[in-house]
Amino acid sequence: MQADGKAAAPQSAEIEPATSTAAEAEIVVTARLRSDRQLDVPVAITAIGGEELLRSGANDLTRIGNLVPSVVIAKNSSGSGGLISLRGVASSPSNSAFESSVGINLDGITITRGYITRAEFFDLEQVEVLKGPQALFFGKNSPAGVISMRSVGPGAQWEGYARGGYELIARERILEGAFGGPIGGGFGARLAVRYSQMDGYFVNRARALANPFDPSMPLPGAVGNTRTPEASNLTGRLTLAYETAAGDFDATIKLLYVKFHDNELTAQQQVIGCAPGRTSGTTLGFQDPYGDCKADRYRSSGFYSALATDKYPYLTERAGPFTENRIWLPSLQLNYDADWIKLTSLTGYFDLSAVGFSNVSFDSFARFGGINGEKNRIFSQELRFLTNLDGIVNFAGGAFYEHSWRNPFALSRSVSVFGPDPRNDWDPQVWASPTAKTDTKSGFLQAILKPIPEIELTAGARYTQIDQHVELVNLFVNQYRLPGAQNIVSAQFRPESDALSGEYSDNNLSPEFTISYKPSRNQTLYAAYKTGYKTGGISTTIVILRSDTIPNLTFQSEKARGGEIGYKTEMVGGNFKFDINAYYYKYSELQRTTLDLATTSFLVRNAASATVKGVEVDTSYRFTDAFRLRLAANFNDARYDNFPGGACYNGQAVSEGCVAPPGSSVRAQDLSGQRLSRAPRVTFNAGVLHTSPISSALNLELGADVRYSSRYFLSDDNDPNAVQPKFAKVDLTARVFGDMNRWEITLAARNITNKYISFFGGAKPGGAVGDIFATVDRGREFAVGGTYRF
Question: What whole-number distance in Å separates Cα of residue 204 and Cα of residue 301?
């Protein structure tokens, strides 16, 4: 069902002759929780249809992000589970307490946990990327934007598709299918299933070697992860829908299930830079003989000695590194339309279980790392209304409630001297298991005024109340000590079962105003004032020290205010589309983290203020029925206005600005005036598509796409060694399909320039100054696939 309660057109039913002379179809979006033409919505939005997602191979959030300028999305091995950045605004993925500044809305349910990046998304009707603060319409306030995805629902007739594919370099196998339709009495059903398995696109060169830290425990090198990520992903979605004969009531139940497995939690991370004069990274002065110093296909990642894994929870029953994620997401949407008012109820439940082994020294020694995981349960309920009165004023409003329970945990090793605990012979240094319970209550109200048909004014606001309770506890602290020596672990970490508890509460009012003017049906000018909010809280750190206190673990709420102006038009019978907007937003208390190399923990900081401003252009032109061209570009200037307390990067000297501010003993750098991390100045996507008949029954479609990004910092401390240089990726596709588009065979060469792009990273734990790790995207791909629609 769409947000207006009507059944979504099935993706596989879009069977049209290749020689259709129709103009480009109008794009309908639900950015305001009602169906509008994209041209009419006073929002900066990019909409991507199901066929474009299929053609580009965009089956997860990382690939979807590649289709939109200024978007960066990546998985993370711990913390919040993933990075989602829009216009350079993002929450650091390294802290499990941070919610995403960019919300992910799946069939009406908003998710702000980065672990959703591990799910595969398919059988989608449309993806909408809404840019800038979205305070009103998506349950929770999103200060940077929202990525909204609508899956295909049951159609008016039974139909479906089967699809298979193979990618040569990662040896990736894909099977996918969906079918659905009416089952009588106003009911409909659809089932979609996708299974993928790959051998991995990175090669792990780590080999067995002597242990320089403990000669009694020789290191085995790669164990079951000579290629990474050796991953499998099973995703299924069941949809049941009901609509009355009168069309005044409908109900949709969706159940999403995701089971993800691979052979290392840090499978996409590697050392990409090293200290001057070295060809591989170091750990506590020892050089890794199997690593290199660049982002490429090769990495070095070892494992613990078998003598240690026999005494390590979660590893005793496994033969090597692993990742196991499971997600359940049931949802229920009810719509009642009484002509003058429409009522909607949205109920959702997000259940996450994630655990894996991470080697965060990113080398053969595996000196730092251990088990990282999270259990997360989120229940949400939203009620809203939209009036349809005869006068010039209408109203929209709603109430939202969410209860979240989150339990990140880690069994880790660090720099301290350690061995087996004399009580139970366990090898980990510490087992941290913090929990956070958060209740969110909010409501919004919007007035919609249309004094004349060409002008629409809206004014609204959302009020939010947050209440959080956090308990930080170490379930286990290793009691091993060298003869005659102090127990370093016990001296550093908070004692077992000595919980540190704290409360956090906050509230916020976020107003929003828009005005739009339509001089003609195919033109819209608009201006908007917007605000955004993301709650603060208490850091659920997985390194719980004796020195920790609730005040120094508390971070403040992130806020945004500013505006944008835009112009949208369609010309030449709808074949030429042009959309331009300019934006200017002030952000306060941006939430940031940085790695403390001494404890391998992440420090929480709030940036005082930042300004994000720029211009976006999105245009397409269908020259003929056979030839289309599109271009989308973002020119973005995202800088800190005032951030004197930025963390120093590894090795930063006093002469380079790492000094203690007046009245403080903690050294910091002043990042005021510098660019935000992961905020390239220029990004653009361009593509061309040409379709021609081969015969009376066959057609050939050729496509070429390029994605460009200027350079950006990888870490929140703006380490000059941790930079992603400018890059361009080029994709080529060829598709042969039947005259009614019932079947197709596709060949794709993606990233033919073979660029290994780093999403985020920073100083390597235990490394020398200049040693940098990063999460790296896959390189070149060659894929073949086939689809049959029925």
Answer: 6
The string of pLDDT tens digits covering residues 618-644 is 999 999 989 999 999 999 999 999 998
Q: Which two tokens stand for residue 27?
A: 């794009």
| Sheet strands (E) in 521-648 | 523-534, 537-538, 554-555, 558-571, 576-596, 601-624, 627-642
Retrieve residue 590's tokens: 């941006």
Q: Which residues neighbour 654 within 8 Å (Cβ) at sequence distance 6 or greater?
A: none
- Which two structure tokens, joined as six digits, stand for 466? 């947050």
* Pairing outcome for strands 202-204 and 227-228: antiparallel
Rg (CA), the chain: 26
- Cβ within 8 Å of residue 98, ≥6 positions away: 79, 80, 91, 92, 591, 593
Determine contact, residues 119/235, Cβ cutoff 8 Å. yes
Q: Could you identify the residue written with the tokens 């269908």?
A: 622
3-state SS track over 474-507: EEEECCCCCCCCCCHHHHHECCECCCEEEEEEEE
271 in Cβ contact with 772 (< 8 Å): yes
**Sign, CA torsion 36/37/41/45:** positive
Measured between alpha carbons, how far is 524 from 518 in angstroms, rounded to an integer?
A: 5
In 414-434, DSSP assigns E strands to 430-432
Peptide bond into 229 cis (omega under 30): yes
Are 758 and 774 within 8 A, CB to CB? yes
* Secondary structure class of 39 (helix, strand, coil): helix
Residue pair 413/432 in contact by the 8 Å Cβ criterion: no
d(CA 602, CA 74): 19
The model's pLDDT over 723-764, given as tens digits with 9 standing for 90+, comes to: 999 999 999 999 999 988 899 999 999 999 999 999 999 999
Query: H helices of 57-170, where?
Result: 61-65
* Mean pLDDT value of segment 602-620: 87
One-letter amino acid identity for 640?
Y
Q: Give the residue among 648, 633, 710 at the shortest CA–CA distance from 679.
A: 710
Q: Are 271 and 775 in contact (CB under 8 A)?
A: no
Q: Return the residue matching tokens 């000590």.
A: 481
Residues 6+ apart with CB under 8 A from 409: 371, 372, 373, 374, 375, 431, 432, 433, 434, 542
pLDDT single digits (tens) 381-406? 999 999 999 999 999 999 999 999 99
CA dihedral 713, 714, 715, 719 (to 10 degrees): -50
Q: Can you name the residues that pair with 431 across neighbouring β-strands?
A: 411, 476
- Whether residue 494 is predicted with pLDDT greater than 70 in this model: the reply is yes
pLDDT of amino acid 11: 38
The residue among 225, 217, 211 whose CA lies nearest residue 268 is 225
Look at residues 789, 777, 780 and name the one whose alpha carbon lies nearest to residue 749.
780
CA atoms in the 13 A half-sphere facing the CB of 183: 12
- Give the closest residue to 202 by CA, choosing from 272, 258, 114, 260: 272
Do the bridges between strand 269-273 and strand 249-262 make them parallel or antiparallel, or are there none, so unpaired? unpaired
User: pLDDT by residue (tens digit) across 762-783?
Assistant: 999 889 999 999 999 999 999 9
User: 552 phi and psi, to 5 degrees?
Assistant: -80, -5
H or E segment to which residue 458 belongs: strand 455-472
The count of other CB atoms within 10 Å of the CB of residue 260 is 23
pLDDT in tens, 27-61: 776 767 677 888 889 999 999 998 899 888 888 89
**pLDDT score for 740:** 83
Give exposure, 51-61, as e/b (b: 16+ Cβ within 10 Å): ebbbbbbbbbb
**Mean pLDDT of the 491-507 span:** 91
What is the chain's mean pLDDT, rounded? Answer: 90
Q: What gap in Å lies between CA 770 and CA 276, rounded to an integer?
A: 7
Element (H, E) at 653: none
HSE at residue 583, side-chain half, CA atoms within 13 A, is: 33
